[in-house]
Amino acid sequence: MVDVRLRFILLFLNAQDTVSTVFTMNRNKREKEYFSIDVGDSTFTVLKRYQNLRPIGSGAQGIVCSAYDHVLERNVAIKKLSRPFQNQTHAKRAYRELVLMKCVNHKNIIGLLHVFTPQKTLEEFQDMYLVMELMDANLCQVIQMELDHERLSYLLYQMLCGIKHLHAAGIIHRDLKPSNIVVKSDCTLKILDFGLARTAATGLLMTPYVVTRYYRAPEVILGMGYQANVDIWAVGCIMAEMVRHKILFPGRDYIDQWNKVIEQLGTPSQEFMLKLNQSVRTYVENRPRYAGYSFEKLFPDVLFPADSDHNKLKASQARDLLSKMLVIDASKRISVDEALQHPYINVWFDPSEVEAVSPPPAITDKQLDEREHTVEEWKELIYKEVLDWEERTKNGVIRGQPASLG
């Protein structure tokens, strides 16, 4: 009996040594898969499959560089989330962006190709890298160009297709702006950055600080309940900027932002005022009253390109679309579906693009739970998402990756 116990103890100790050896080998193997390189002011520690890293942009959420992926044999963009666990807000945004990017699949929404972390355990976990499709420029550069009607309307059509796909899944982007829309030289367009996106199912109010100021819808500025049409207002502001080559409502703060809106579009009706809570209504009603300008005055023909003979696109159509998107009362603002049927847009209408071949993503409330978590709890949720992605990969290539991304 003693001999049996002794042999069992020896067997157990040998097994422990084997597990320890395998863990050490896996750790060493993992370390050999990565290398570090300085990119701008940051150090990227990435898989060796990614080479020729070059910085291409940065923002509040992270630094982006271009690279060549030797596995997929294509150029990609790698985003390093900067200090995603420094506070609850950053952690929540990182989680939201990752979950939504994993779910969406549409030609006008940036494709997520890979997710990884060089750290080996939850305790060490600090850095997360998102690998995405590489585009040529963002809309900030395009805004400075003189576009003909075909290009202008085609870019808007693609924005609306991407937004429709998100809205079909109950996702409101909430932060559409020129720097979050990227294009290629062939005029293809994709929407990115879902750190502020949220599901429309929740009835919580949006704070006036959520969306980038210049593209905030009036209902956001005034702290009202919100709906999907906040994204349509942003598209209207972006379209106006593409026509005028300057920001339409350049407010210094959210109060000045509201003043800029009513100075140009006019003080809203009493019907709209009654939708505001008492304190906000009192403030708005005490502001000077403005008649506003006609859209012919705001957007005269001279701002637009020459009318198109090929697609019969006219300045009057573009101006009419602007007048329907830039409506203060969200309930009277044009919807995504209505905008896609507008004469300035529907020349490009293709059911396979508008409706999307693949079904809209199924986002469960649990995935984007608005309950507050500690930083450590958000960190664990994000780490699980990264591990889940790694489970779905084989030899560095995503299983079931759509052909359009591979």
Q: Could you name the key traits of this structure?
A:
406 residues, alpha+beta, three-stranded antiparallel sheet, 14 helices, globular
Q: How would you describe this protein?
A:
By secondary structure, this protein is of the alpha+beta class. 39% of the residues lie in helices and 16% in strands. It has helices at residues 2-32, 88-103, 139-143, 149-168, 218-221, 230-244, 254-265, 270-273, 278-286, 295-298, 315-325, 336-340, 351-356, 375-391; strands spanning 34-39, 42-47, 50-58, 62-69, 74-81, 112-116, 129-133, 137-138, 171-172, 181-183, 189-191, 198-199, 393-394, 397-398. It has a five-stranded antiparallel beta sheet. Strands 8-10-11 form a three-stranded antiparallel beta sheet. A hairpin with a 3-residue loop joins strand 3 and strand 4 (62-69). Helix 2 (88-103) packs parallel to helix 14 and helix 4 (149-168) packs antiparallel against helix 6 (230-244). Keywords: ATP-binding, Biological rhythms, Kinase, Magnesium, Nucleotide-binding, Phosphoprotein, Serine/threonine-protein kinase, Signal, Transferase. Residues 50-345 form the Protein kinase domain. Belongs to the protein kinase superfamily. CMGC Ser/Thr protein kinase family. MAP kinase subfamily. One of its GO terms (biological process) is rhythmic process. Residues 1-21 form the signal peptide.
